[in-house]
Amino acid sequence: MFTREELIYYSRQLNLPGHTLEIQDRLRKSKVLIVGIGGLGSPAAQYLAAAGIGTLGLIDDDSVQLHNLHRQILFSVDDIGQKKVITAKKKLEKLNPFITIETKDVRLVQSNCLSEFQPYDLILDCTDNYETRYMINDACVILNKPFVSGALFGSESQVAVFNLKTEPGSRGPTYRCLHPEAPAIDDRQGCADSGIIGVVAGQAGLSMANEAIKVITGIGKNLSGYLLNSNYRENRTELFTLEYSDKSFLEGPQNEEEFLAMDYAQFCKRIISITEE
Amino acid sequence: MLAEITGSAALNYFEMNSIDELKSKLFSEFPALTEKKFSIAVNRKIVTGNPALNNSDDIALLPPFSGG
Known about the structure:
The complex is a heterodimer of chains A (277) and B (68).
Chain A: H1 4-9, H2 11-14, H3 21-29, E1 31-35, H4 41-51, E2 55-59, H5 84-95, E3 100-104, H6 110-117, E4 122-125, H7 130-143, E5 147-153, E6 156-162, H8 175-178, H9 191-194, H10 198-217, E7 226-231, E8 236-241, H11 246-250, H12 256-261, H13 264-267
Parallel strand pairs in A: 1-2, 1-4, 2-3, 4-5
Antiparallel strand pairs in A: 5-6, 6-7, 7-8
Helix pairs in contact in A: 4-5, 4-10, 6-7
Chain B: H1 3-6, H2 19-29, E1 39-42, E2 45-47, E3 59-62
C-alpha cells in the first residue's frame, strides 16, 4: 500500500469526497505519456506528477531556450541549453519522489510512435503541429488507447478527450471526427506565430492534466464526446458536443502497415518553414 | 482566428434554412473563408452534412488550433 510519507503527501486530495485510497492507487498504477514538454506539456507534467501518476513518460527532443521561460515555468535560466526531458525529470522527481519519470530524448515520428506509446495507458498530445496531431490520433486508435488533446491559438484553447471507450460496444470520437480535413497551409499557427501568454498555456495544460486524472480515476465528467473551447481574454467558455463518426474514423489507417505508409506531411500539405517555438 | 476574416466574432443572418445556405452566404461575403477548414456546431452540437436550421439557432465555426 502507501507509505506513511505518501499518505501525508496526498492527504489533501484524499480528503476530497470520493477520492479514496483505491482511487489514489489507480493514479499510482497508471502510466501516462506526455508528448511535447512545451507550453501545454510542462504544466501538465507538473500537476500530473504532483497528483501521483505512478509512471510519467516525457517525450521531446528539444532543449530549453530563453523564450520558453515565459510560459514553460517548469524550467529556469539555469536550464537554458539543457535537454528538456532531462531537466524536467530532475525537477519532477524533486516535486514528487514517489513516482517514476521516464524520459525519451527523441522526436516522435512514425517509425517510433507505436512502440513509444505501447507501454502507456493514456497519452497527452501537447504537440505544436497538425501532422503530429493526426499521427498521434492514428497511433492511439490502432493501439486502442485514449488520449487528451490540447491546442492553443492566441488567447484561446481547445481541449478534448479522444478515443475513449467507456462502455462495451461504444466509443468516443477521435481527432479525425472533429477535424476530418487537415487545415490549409497558412493555418499552421504555432505559439510564435499567433502569440501566447503563459497563463493561457498554463490553464489549457492544466485542463488537460485534469482530464487525464478524471479518465484514470473515473471520477467526474471528462471531455470524451466534447470539445471545450476557452477564450481567456473574453472569459468565454463553450462546451460543444461531438459524436464519433464511422466515416472519419475509416479515413485513418486501420493497422500498423497502413499507419507506417501514411504521409502526414502530404496530408497536411506542409510547407517547410523555419519557425521558432 | 476566423474573426480576423469576418471582422467580428459574432454575426447575425436571417432566413438561412440550412448549413449549406449559410456557408454559401458566408463564402460570398468573405471569400477568404473558402480557404479555411473548420467544423461547424449548431446550438453547441458539432454537426456533419447539411442539417436544416431554425430561427435563433446558434452557429459556431471551429477551426483547428495547433499551438502547444
